Amino acid sequence: QVQLVESGGGSVQAGGSLRLSCLASEYIYNKNWITWFRQAPGKGREAVAGIVVRGAHNVAASGKGRFTISRDNAKNTVYLQMNSLKSEDTGMYYCAADLRGGGYWSDSHEYNYWGQGTQVTVSS
Question: Under 8 Å CB-to-CB from 28, ≥6 apart: which residues?
């Protein structure tokens, strides 16, 4: 079964930390990109960080210096460690997998598989 399952969201105060997990089915874990997106109320989805099979990764400007993406191949899981959280980090966080050929890693329209999301709420 093809699926992505996110977990680890919650409510924290500004300055706190959360670690999100994205468990992927075997079929899609070894696809090219697995990327975290977020969506705030009334806004579109924006890329947060993405990682490829061999470990190369990108972090969006909004998260540089605060967010780290990693993967555990033994567990088919991609993690997003978020530190120094701000109120503007609030939103639903999704992981996406399998970037279409020619697509750009941060373009949400170019992914074939999505999870259901996990909510992150940061209070100031």
Answer: 2, 4, 97, 98, 113
Q: Are strands 33-39 and 45-52 parallel, antiparallel or unpaired?
A: antiparallel
CB 28 within 8 A of CB 4: yes
Please say if the pLDDT value at position 1 is more than 80: no
CB 117 within 8 A of CB 95: no
Beta strand pairing call for 91-99 and 33-39: antiparallel
Q: How far is CA 35 from CA 27, 49, 96, 110, 123, in A?
A: 16, 6, 5, 11, 25
8-65 tens-digit pLDDT = 999 999 999 999 999 999 989 988 899 999 999 899 999 999 999 888 999 999 999 9
Name residue, tokens 């409510």. Answer: 11
CA distance 98 to 120: 24
CB 120 within 8 A of CB 10: yes
